[in-house]
């Protein structure tokens, strides 16, 4: 008895066009089918390979799957349990395969756009069925060529308008004699904002990176197949179970149910989303200028470690389930433990949402204090304050607070149960409903006003800095004064001065023409301690109702005998 099997081979190319860093945002796919191979052979009953099938097409009892760039060839052996090719073994000699092979051209071209980043949508666009997708997700399948598109994950989220209209026009765009694209000016402007990543099975002389180069590659695809179509690669393969040749050969017991594959996919896809989320925060101005938010780096590392461990477990379970060594309940139990443990998606997303809120709060404060310098570390702060006679530093003190949830994740990775889940959650100082954040913003505004009033001062004499440092005594924020590199007084006293000078001063008149200052005796305190409530009268420049920026230094000698030393230092160099 003879069969006439066939195997379809064709080239598969993907041109991935991006807008402002959005990799894989729009995928143009061109497929060309050129060969169908026929093979005549006599079936034999002498082959018994447990759980192994060979690559062959028949109309009955066959399995169909996409090649994903793997080097399939006629007559090869394939392990369906682990989705691995068995190299170096064929059921027939190569000479016999070549002699009995027949070819028939089957040209075809297809153009599609896939505007999605999810594994589900990308695998669907490549025709990957559930079982093979499960193997890919847990790392059993190593994709090559154009199928590397599946592994090309974004590192950060980006926002922006999709240029799908431009991509749809690729088949219609012509290249003029000068090498320029024939497009309208608006279209050309959009095209210049696109970047391109090529995933294909050809070794190009130059990988396309621009829209123009992508169009050229697209138009050159038929030529790249070679004059005799020798550069084609298998895209779809058909597998015949060995039990068809010999009933005693072991069969593929079961495939993984779609429900469990979808659960595993959602979990792993969630970790990919979290990684991009972490990168977004770390690459934001607030994340780069305040490394104390680096707890996010720790979170990202632990999520990656757990994801790799989960993939390793899945890669061990899948072959056992497919071969009948274990039931699907074993896989269901693994996924259930993930959902019930600290690495479940809800808790991870909630933690990241809190960190995102904290980052946005810091970003808002940075915007409020644009007239200050931001330093990223304690060492950088030391360099800055040492380089100036005086420096006023606004300190964000709660960025490095302890995180019980991170401790719980760490203990889980070590395999030990942590009691940190019972620990109280840290106070969300960055919440708009929290009084701490309200106080921090008020202090930041006062600080910014001082910096604005002194913006003309030489940085060698006075600097206004912002830094993130831990301070257990001051929740939310603190303000430090440095002179010649040494810290002079603490937040409480300085905050009192800032608040009083801004909101509770009386009037102080300065007569510039006579260079005299008239001091009202009513503001002189009976005791130095009361200076916090009543220090100065409001400064009003003659003819303009605004704070004077000069004159306080003239009071230095007079005030020094009445005020504490830290205030005299203040009036020695700071003005409002």
From TrEMBL:
<dbReference type="InterPro" id="IPR040581">
    <property type="entry name" value="Thioredoxin_11"/>
</dbReference>
<dbReference type="InterPro" id="IPR052090">
    <property type="entry name" value="Cytolytic_pore-forming_toxin"/>
</dbReference>
<feature type="domain" description="SNTX thioredoxin-like">
    <location>
        <begin position="372"/>
        <end position="487"/>
    </location>
</feature>
<dbReference type="InterPro" id="IPR048997">
    <property type="entry name" value="Stonustoxin-like_helical"/>
</dbReference>
<dbReference type="Pfam" id="PF18078">
    <property type="entry name" value="Thioredoxin_11"/>
</dbReference>
<protein>
    <recommendedName>
        <fullName>SNTX thioredoxin-like domain-containing protein</fullName>
    </recommendedName>
</protein>
<feature type="domain" description="Stonustoxin-like helical">
    <location>
        <begin position="267"/>
        <end position="360"/>
    </location>
</feature>
<dbReference type="Pfam" id="PF21109">
    <property type="entry name" value="Stonustoxin_helical"/>
</dbReference>
